[in-house]
Amino acid sequence: MPSQGKLLIVDDEKVALKNLEHVMKKEGYEVTATQSGAHALAFLEKQPFDVVLTDLRMEKVDGMQILRKCREACPDTEVVLITGYATLESAVEAMKHGAFYYIAKPFRLDEVRKVVAEAVEKIHLKRENRSLREQVESFQGKVKIITQDIKVQRLLEMARQVAPTGCNILITGESGTGKELFARYLHAHGERSEGPFLAVNCGAFNEELLSNELFGHTKGAFTGAGTDKKGLLEAATGGTLFLDEITEMSPAMQVKLLRVIQEREVLPLGGTVPIKVDVRFIAATNRDVQDMMRQGGFRQDLYFRLNVVNLHIPPLSQRKEDVPLLAYHFLRKYAALMKKDVTEIAPDALELLKVYEFPGNIRELENIIERGVAISTGAVIEAAHLPEDLRDLSIRTFRKKDGRIPSLEEQEKDYIRWVLEEAGGNQTQAAQILGIDRVSLWRKLKRYELEAE
Ligand SMILES: Nc1ncnc2c1ncn2[C@@H]1O[C@H](COP(=O)(O)OP(=O)(O)OP(=O)(O)O)[C@@H](O)[C@H]1O
Ligand SMILES: [Mg+2]
Questions:
Q1: Spatial distance between the Cα atoms of 327 and 257, rounded to a whole number of angstroms
Q2: In the CATH scheme, what is the homologous superfamily, with its name and number, of domain 150-312?
Q3: Do the two domains 6-131 and 317-394 of this chain adopt the same fold?
Q4: How far apart are the C-alpha atoms of 305 and 308, rounded to whole Å?
Q5: pTM: predicted TM-score of the whole model, two decimal places
Q6: What is residue 87's predicted lDDT score, i.e. its pLDDT?
Q7: What is the pLDDT, as a whole number, of residue 274?
Q8: 80, 37, 79, 43: which is closest to 57 by C-alpha?
Q9: Given the CA of residue 173, which atom of ligand 1 is nearest to it?
Q10: In this predicted structure, what is the pLDDT of residue 94?
Q11: Which residue from 7, 75, 340, 388 has the least number of CB within 10 angstroms?
């Protein structure tokens, strides 16, 4: 029989002690009994107990001392005091010091049984709650979204706000911007964080396989269906289902999914009884959904069901100040994983990272740093450890702006601004460097509205 709990019983009266020990053992507790308060303190040092049942008045080490010891050193132990000299004062004093209960002699054994059972239950609940909380915290802690960009910080704030509501969310953004990470963040901060987080890539399966993934089947539903298979819609109950690349779903699947969201139940292939579905949906896409709806590639009614809230994650090229921060985050991550003592990114390497456009966004940055950590031989990732197309940037000074090639005027404006900065705002010196006279410079400044800067 598994133990009901671990009990320490302390009473300097031998007969009373034997009696309690016998009764509690019969109840199924694992009992340690001692007549000495000093021994009790020693036991508490060595092993964990759920409940200490102790006499209050004892020679030398008394019940109050044992209580104090427990409150200081054993937060997971409840103390029940027994005394023959029950006065209101000592009772209040004991409760003030955190005793679970106070039993006056002469007591009925029933009362002791009941109080000890309650104390054990309380301690078990306390432990259970803590372990749940630790799990949640560790999940929340695992989902770290690193940013110092104001746009992304606002997104995070919004995510924390909508996470607990349980509403469906559509996350949009280019490939590698962190859509799945955001989905995990929403799950971790929601009320379902103790439930499962399951993900399915709708673009990775043909219609039949995706249907099987989502809806599952019963044994014998088709040739080869040897056992029941639970679909993700059912398996995610109580949690979150992340539908990645939602826009890759075929029109027929879109209809089936819409029905599940509306009716909140699902019928596995070959099944006859619908199963209740209690799932939060988070969908993601890197495509332009509005455009797809116009073209008829995505159903508007499904869009409205999923897009209760939209989170759009900006590409890394629009949040360049995040580059060094993320680069160092990944450096630490991969240095630890590979057990290498790489701690730094050389300034010229960092410079290259800052000007690079990152078409693959954060995933690409992560890969670049992972590779850099892998091939670096010292403590520093040098420019030479970066991919070739990135190193080429140092010779090619023309760069795309928001993904397109800038005009000559735009280039000139940027160039004049830079020269002015380098000249510390001194226009005569800037004109000299530019090789034009001061009046021409002044005209250009006016035209490009740079005078105020
Ligand atoms: N702000 C961030 N802080 C830390 N890590 C991030 C951040 N954003 C993204 N990442 C990391 O970058 C990688 C790519 O992110 P994720 O897989 O979430 O992107 P995605 O938008 O789902 O990409 P895809 O569209 O290609 O599926 C992951 O390893 C993720 O942990
Ligand atoms: Mg993804």
A1: 39
A2: P-loop containing nucleotide triphosphate hydrolases (3.40.50.300)
A3: no
A4: 6
A5: 0.62
A6: 59
A7: 92
A8: 37
A9: 21
A10: 80
A11: 388
Q: Which two tokens stand for residue 320?
A: 């360049």
The protein residue with its alpha carbon nearest to ligand 1, atom 25, reads 175
pLDDT of residue 89: 74
Q: Tell me which residues of the chain have a pLDDT lower than 50.
A: none
Q: For a pocket test of ligand 1, which of 312, 334, 363, 370 has the largest count of ligand atoms closer than 8 A to its C-beta?
A: 363
Q: Please report the pLDDT score of residue 221 as a whole number.
A: 83
Fold classified for 408-447: Arc Repressor Mutant, subunit A (1.10.10)
Question: How high is the pLDDT of residue 79?
Answer: 94
Q: State which fold the 317-394 domain adopts.
A: Helicase, Ruva Protein; domain 3 (1.10.8)
Span 390-432, pLDDT tens digits: 887 665 556 666 667 888 888 888 889 888 888 888 999 999 9
Between the CA of 197 and the centroid of ligand 2 the distance, in Å, is 14
- Predicted local distance difference test score (pLDDT) of residue 396: 53
Per-domain residue ranges of the chain: 6-131, 150-312, 317-394, 408-447
The torsion of the CA quartet 251, 315, 150, 329, rounded to 10 degrees, works out to 110
Q: Determine which residue's CA is closest to atom 31 belonging to ligand 1.
A: 181
Classify domain 6-131 by CATH number.
3.40.50.2300
Chain centroid to CA 284: how far?
18
As given in the structure block, the two tokens for residue 248 are 């890759």
Task: Using only the alpha carbons of the chain, give its radius of gyration.
Answer: 34
Q: What is the CA(200)–ligand 2 centre distance, in A?
A: 10
Alpha carbon distance 63, 16 (integer Å)? 15
Give the number of the ligand closest to the Cα of residue 176.
1
What's the N-to-C CA distance of the chain in angstroms?
81
- Nearest ligand to residue 243 Cα: 2
Distance 199 CA to ligand 2 centre (A): 10
Closest ligand, as measured to the CA of 147: 1
Residues in contact with 138: Cβ distance below 8 Å, sequence separation at least 6, in sequence order: none
Tokens for 278, please give them. 């209690």
Burial class (CB in 10 A: 0-12, 13-18, 19+), 26: exposed
Out of 181, 288, 323, give the residue to mutate to test ligand 1, the one with the largest number of ligand atoms within 8 Å of its CB: 181
Ligand 2 center from residue 180 Cα (angstroms): 5
